[in-house]
Amino acid sequence: RPFHVEPTNIVSVNDDMQRVTDEASAMNKRIHYYSRLTSPADRALIAPDHVLPAPDEIYVYSPLGTAFKVNSCADGYGKNSSIVTIFMIWNTMMGTSILSIPWGIKQAGFTSGIILIILMGILTLYCCYRVVKSRKTIPLIDTSNWEFPDVCKYYFGSFGQWSSLLFSMVSLVGAMVVYWVLMSNFLFNTGKFIYNFVHDINVTDIVPGTNGSNKVICPSATSNYPPQNRSLMFSSHNNTSFELFEEWWDKSQTVPFYLIAILLPLLNLKSPSFFAKFNVLGTVSVVYLVFLVTVKAAHLGIHLEYNWFTENEFFVPEFRIQFPQLTGVLTLAFFIHNCVITLLQNNKNQENNVRDLSVAYFLVGLTYLYVGVIIFASFPSPPLSKECIEQNFLDNFPSDDIMSFIARIFLLFQMMTVYPLLGYLARVQLLRQFFGNAYPSIFHVLILNVVIVGAGVAMARFYPNIGGIIRYSGATCGLAFVFVYPSLIYVISLHRAGQLTWPALITHIFIILLGLANLIAQFLL
């Protein structure tokens, strides 16, 4: 874009030219990063032509599937204030893991659950700090456009390149499987609510639960009851129609397959940039969940009893041997390590990166603590046992609960817009490595998407346990990106600089062993 120069003010010209130069440099860096994520012919992550000259628009795309379009501050060009940076990091980390935090606290025990959330937050923050600093350990090379997988490739060669791709795919595909299970769940409950409302049907699920207007149910206690999908109908004009609906609207038998008709065509689109416009729904969903939890707790009250090592009929011990199930979930809940460099390099004041990252982690941990502790503490025990807390805490509220219905609608629509973005990132990372093109042909893309969708359908059909899926995928990808690679790179860089000490070596070996133990424990407990 032509730049108009006023010859009467040389100082102003120099300042303006410097501003434009800085602006162009920042924009070029962003464009370079986007171009590495896509093929040359694909402009999904490339700023459009009408955006390139503008200093007030920034596009940040997280490999975890969250897209941001933010305006720069008035005191900077092409950069974000600390507040915006903190919000972007918080918004990127806050995901489906929040639904499983109360279940994780139940598996670990109330007291140990709170302690583990704090400790895992501190540990993952430290490893994230090591990721941010990793680029500075590479001398004589311009690493301004590098992300953490590039650093892994520099230190570990082709092994680092392919292993980072593998673990990145684990996180992406794991997230897509969790999304499919949750979308099936939300679509089922939403359809059930709408059908009953339209046909004026009064239905009660055949599951144990509390009475009153704020009903809480225990779906996991249905082993001695008919299948979970079945219900008792108290009033209806057409019993046959209701039974037919329940036959064709089943949470695990039919609904996961209905989603294929909606989402598989969207996965095959060359550019998913349209769906990035709806990512504000993620923030709305989290805020609404916090509101829902607060209102439910106000009505249900607090139900706690401290049994440090023994169980009883209604409460769980404060410390339980299943605590690694929570650490597996938390590894993914605090996972931002493979895209944090991109988010922070757009921070206007780079000297505040550590502070802003710490504040963002504090807010994420506070959100997890609030939701997890409030749901666990307010769960009505008695008459229900704390063991009834589900891996998706929304399952503890019946399908006809209005507030839960609204939450499921929000989350369903948000996940249906994020799912194509995750699929696109999986396609870019995998197909570009093997074929040099993110869209080699519709056949290649279709085969990949069918495999990914098939994994989601299979899990929704046979293993619809989001807590289990999250902890397995979180511990697996976290082993590489959270525990092993950041620690190894730091130790190697200290050794090359002649600054490695025994305390530093022992500390980071211990962190690596913690990540390995976290992964192994998922398969033993």
CATH topology call of the largest domain: Amino acid/polyamine transporter I
- CATH fourth-tier homologous superfamily of the largest domain: Amino acid/polyamine transporter I
**Main sheet: strand order:** 1-2
Distance between the terminal alpha carbons, to the nearest Å? 61 Å
What is the SS-derived class? mainly alpha
The number of distinct helices, counting runs of at least 4 residues, comes to 15
Strand and helix order:
HEEHHHHEEHHHHHHHHHH
Strand content range: under 5%
Largest beta sheet, briefly? 2 strands, antiparallel
Helical proportion? 55-70%
- Class of the largest domain in CATH? Mainly Alpha
Any overview of this molecule?
The chain is mainly α and 525 residues long. It has two domains: 48 residues, no CATH class; 415 residues, Amino acid/polyamine transporter I (Up-down Bundle), CATH 1.20.1740.10. It is 61% helix and 3% strand. The protein has 15 helices and four strands. Strands 1-2 form a two-stranded antiparallel ribbon. Helix 5 packs antiparallel against helix 12. The protein is globular.
